[in-house]
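Our preliminary data section would be incomplete without showing what the modeling component actually yields. Below, a chain of 164 amino acids is followed by its predicted structure, encoded as tokens that our downstream tools consume directly.
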Amino acid sequence: MRLYGVTGWKNSGKTTLMERLVAEFSGRGLSVSTVKHAHHATEIDHEGRDSFRHRQAGAREVIVASPVRWALMHELRGAAEPPLAALLARLSPVDLVLVEGYKREAHPKIEVHRQATGRPPLAPQMRGIRALASDAPPPGLALPVFALDDIAGIAGFILAEVGL
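Predicted structure:
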């Protein structure tokens, strides 16, 4: 599987770019999966649901299955967060995996940068960043820079980077 990341500061537009890239790649006939990293306790289950009750009772893993989808929830129960590589190993094979977050990992990524965040780009000090998608590209950055809405251009760049 080929892997490419989308990174940037909070509220820079990472999820919007991910959503648009998934649609673009899927529209080109590629199979795409995503991994999203959260810095907080993400809850995808709801109190009172049977699966929630199973987890609360102490189940390590709970699978919820229906005719439309299935989901696996794994409780760490105090264990360390698994590394990205361990999570990727659990995915079914696809043409491309897009990763949101995990900015300190070495995989190639594009940084989403918005001037409104008031923060400088991560690119100069963060390994793996190969390009910038920005509303106001900073001067002197020695990386390709795309407009935030140039989805076809960004997608083409990513596909060339991963050899698809």
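The longest helix spans residues 14-27. The chain has a mean pLDDT of 93. Preliminary results of this kind motivate Aim 1 of the renewal.
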